[in-house]
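Hello forum,

I keep getting stuck at the same step: I have a sequence, I want structure tokens, and every attempt I make locally crashes halfway through. Rather than fight my setup again tonight, could one of you with a working pipeline run this one for me? It's a single chain of 350 residues.
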Amino acid sequence: MSSTAPPSGIDHVDERLLRTTPLKKLLARPELGSVVGAAAVFVFFALFADSFLRPSSLGTVLYAASTIGIMAVPVALLMIGGEFDLSAGVMVTSSALVSSMFSYRMTANVWVGVGVSLLVTLAIGVFNGVMLTRTELPSFIITLGTFLMLTGLNLGLTKLISGTVSTKTIADMEGFPSARKLFASQLTLGGVEFKVTVLWWFGLVALATWILLRTRFGNWIFAVGGGADAARAVGVPVHRTKIGLYAGVALCAWISGQHLLFSFDVVQSGEGVGNELIYIIAAVIGGCLITGGYGSAIGSAVGALIFGMTSKGIVYAEWNPDWFKFFLGAMLLLATLLNAWIRKRVEATK
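Reply #2:
Ran it on my machine without issues. Output:
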């Protein structure tokens, strides 16, 4: 009869041969802490905000969560890969500005502007990835530089082309109605109105989860985040993986930028500053480690949902909105501490 016991004199047993209970599997999930936090936030505002449980409030909360969640997904994957992108917030605005100003100045169909914006935004993401891999400088420095450059370009070029800090209206141009339908329409399900961004968000979460758990590229992301040198030693294309992750952030920034443009028709050039921190907070609350190699796309979605419930719950409770950042900071600390405690318990039981 075969046995899994180690040979005489050997104390270590391959952890793949150990039995894992459903409870241990649950505790090992990166998003567990955020799910507990989301449940606590939901119960809290359900008790203190009467209108929080109304069906109409659901659409509002999910919309607020989706605008953060669309960007939190690629930021989470980037953090799992061990990197940051501080330019993600202003890149969203850059994407919207390129679409609007190119369409207006070239008097073209707005879809031409949307296509040009996609190319420009992807180029920014690839630029971040190439600069990171070629210079080997910290991603904090690289993307901080990109953040400052984009902030200046957004304001300077908008003033130069439009004469003001905002773009001109393109609502009367050909292609605007169809573009708005794709990026900024509303859906009604069960009597509740939802923004189409919720579908974009859910789709991106599903795609990112499939990539992380079912593809070779997903294995590369975890390997690179766990240790770039070790990953390179076993044949992982570290540079290509990181460039691909930055391109993913750019792609989602383009989606968010088009929503921004086609929701409000005009774009303010100073928008987006500071949003990059919210994306990172959503990913960290969702279980991503600052050090990389650990996290999930689902966790980032739960982190974004916590953001949506908190930002709107405070309004429904008729509290001073200045308390929002206090709650967000408290959730960040509590979720991080809970994730650290769960990981220690899991490692102690192996």
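The CA atoms of residues 110 and 175 lie 5 Å apart. If your local run keeps crashing, start a new thread with the error log.
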